[in-house]
Design brief:
It contains five helices and seven strands, in the order αββββαββαβαα. The protein is of the alpha+beta class and 160 residues long. The strands form two sheets. It has a five-stranded mixed beta sheet with strand order 4-1-7-5-6. Strands 2-3 form a two-stranded antiparallel sheet. β5 and β6 form a beta hairpin. It comes from Opuntia streptacantha.
Length: 160
């Protein structure tokens, strides 16, 4: 490798961040020492420009996983029990600053991606008066609520 090629390569790596992205698995204690580790799922490397915005980064990560995700990252020299949630450009800048302080030459950030759970909101039910007027009675919906031949329910005694 020539000196000029080496400089270009160094400049390129200084402007690039690599995320080691794990998704689809879970963090669980390891037997026998109980230290947390990531188990199952997939792990991929995502290389992005250092100038990337949080929304662009999250978009790339979501595309990689195939669904919308939330991002938590491991700080340098910390275990998996101290993950930091990244939700904004400021959070991302703070994370990069931490990595610059501890490991400026090897910028590989351990990222854990979790699918965003969307809560389904039930559709609003109509007001009670409207509901009663438009809905059939529960007896007509249930085939088990049989009526006797006289039209009375089996638990009532008919008076003859």
């Amino acid at each position: 490798m020539t000196r000029s090629t080496l400089q270009v390569s160094d400049n390129k790596s200084a402007n690039t961040i690599k995320f080691l992205c794990s998704y689809g698995g879970k963090i669980a204690p390891r037997y026998p020492d109980g230290k947390l580790r990531y188990h199952g799922g997939h792990t991929r490397v995502l290389s992005v420009p250092r100038s990337i915005s949080f929304s662009e980064l999250l978009s790339k990560m979501s595309e990689m996983c195939g669904s919308s995700v939330s991002l938590r990252c491991q700080l340098p020299n910390e275990d998996l029990d101290a993950l930091v949630t990244i939700k904004s450009d400021e959070d991302l800048a703070n994370l990069l600053e931490e990595y610059d302080r501890f490991a400026p030459s090897s910028m590989k950030i351990r990222a854990f991606l979790s699918p965003i759970r969307t809560m389904k909101t039930p559709s609003p039910s109509p007001p009670p008066s409207e509901y009663a007027a438009t809905s059939p009675s529960p007896k007509s919906l249930s085939p088990s609520s049989s009526l006797s031949a006289t039209g009375s329910s089996p638990d009532r005694k008919s008076v003859v």
